[in-house]
Amino acid sequence: MASLGRRIGDLFRSLQLTLVLSIVVPLLMFSGIAIYIGLGAVEKALNERLREDLELVARAVSGPLSNALVEKDELVLGESLKSIFQIGRISGASVFDEEGNRVASLGVADSDVTNSVSAERVIASGELGGAFRRVDGESVFSQFTPLVGEDGRIQGLLQVTRQRSDFHDLVASSRWWAVGIWSVLAMTIILVVVLGHYRTVGRHVNGLMENMDKLAPGRWLLATPAAGPRELRQIHRGIRDMGRRMGDAEAEIEDRIARERALAEQLEYQEKVAMIGRVAGGVAHELGAPLNVIQGRARILARAGLPDDQQRHLKDIEHQVQRMTTIIQQLLDCFRHVPDSRRPLDLSDVLRDVLARASEDERCSRCQLETQGIDQSMPTRAEPLRVGLACLNVIRNGCQSARSRLRVTAHQSDDCWEIRIEDDGPGIAPEDRDKIFEPFYSTRPAGEGTGLGLAVVNSVIKEHGGRVGVEESSLGGCRMSLYFPRETGV
């Protein structure tokens, strides 16, 4: 979900740039090019008009000037040049012979055209020509017209010059003014697009993205309401609906996993109960009678007045028979279910009875026993003998592990009663805390434990809907907590 949000965020974060690059920039480029080309076309048209005007003036006086040049009549040449200034706005006029030497001149004009490409071209082709050039430091249009005699031979050249008009200069310079104005307009448009996008779209997208970044397992609902344009509100509603479905799916998956885990644990427990229950039943049935016979014969021999060394062997036999009988009984206790015998009772009564029995145990007589909170009313629903057996097993284990102190306390923990048994012994390593409830697993040396006591405890607590916790005690040893569901109305 987070990666999806980042991809959408990248898309919207590039929307401003996309708008500018794909729409605004092409429009501005086309408009700028159009303005520039249009101004160039206007300037070109003015140049063409200027050339045509000069060409008309030159044609009008080319005949008299040709005759005057042939006849070398300087007076006619002068008058003809003066008449050019009366026809139109002319800056200068000059007459050159066929070798390019100036014969007569008025105003702004070249003194020598022997090196002029335009002049050479006109002499060679016999056609009119001209170009912009600087003459006497001024920018003028120089029009060359061939002076043709009656015999059709080129006698010389007429140069007519004209300065750029004020309007022509304004149009030429206005091209750069247009570029400057266009640049300012372009920046203004881009700024308006960027700010307008942020105000109408961008800030809503940023807010949506901030909320989407907070989406995570267990927090699938958007915290803020939909805002912005219709499309963004639709996206917000879509993400909100998707988050709601994700939350429902996550809750359903977690519930299904919890149910499957509970069913798996229950199935595993039931399979283990069925398997070891059959073993325990078979052991009790097959070994019970032989053990009773062995124990009975040992007692008969003990009363026969045998020597002391033989009496010691008989006591060892009787002790081992008693140990085997205890193991069989623990197996039966571990896998016996009595759900129909549960009844409302007070755990404090069970604890007082268990502590009285524990005080008679030789293993507990050497420990300083501390109690706290066991006199309070702790209503629950349980089978008293099974609960007492579980508590007694844990207390005896604590007595056996303790160096000098054993503490038994009762607390209310949420909807359960917690019975804590703590000792100042060596404790239980974290890696062994899950294994100690397995049948026949023991942390004590061989021969000092059957590994069934805590299995009995775990079986009893599960029968009553509780749980067992193992942690480190504040006394330095092990703290074992038995949790029993609370019962109301007892």
Automatic annotation (TrEMBL):
GO terms for molecular function: phosphorelay sensor kinase activity. GO terms for cellular component: membrane. SUPFAM superfamilies: ATPase domain of HSP90 chaperone/DNA topoisomerase II/histidine kinase, Homodimeric domain of signal transducing histidine kinase. Gene3D superfamilies: 1.10.287.130, Histidine kinase-like ATPase, C-terminal domain. The keyword Transmembrane applies. Its EC number is 2.7.13.3. The chain crosses the membrane at residues 20-42, 176-198. It comes from Marinobacter excellens LAMA 842. Its main location: membrane. This is histidine kinase. It is found in: Membrane. InterPro entries: HATPase_C_sf (IPR036890), HATPase_dom (IPR003594), His_kinase_dom (IPR005467), HisK_dim/P_dom (IPR003661), HisK_dim/P_sf (IPR036097), Sig_transdc_His_kin-like_C (IPR004358), TCS_sensor_his_kinase (IPR050428). It is an enzyme of class 2 (transferase).
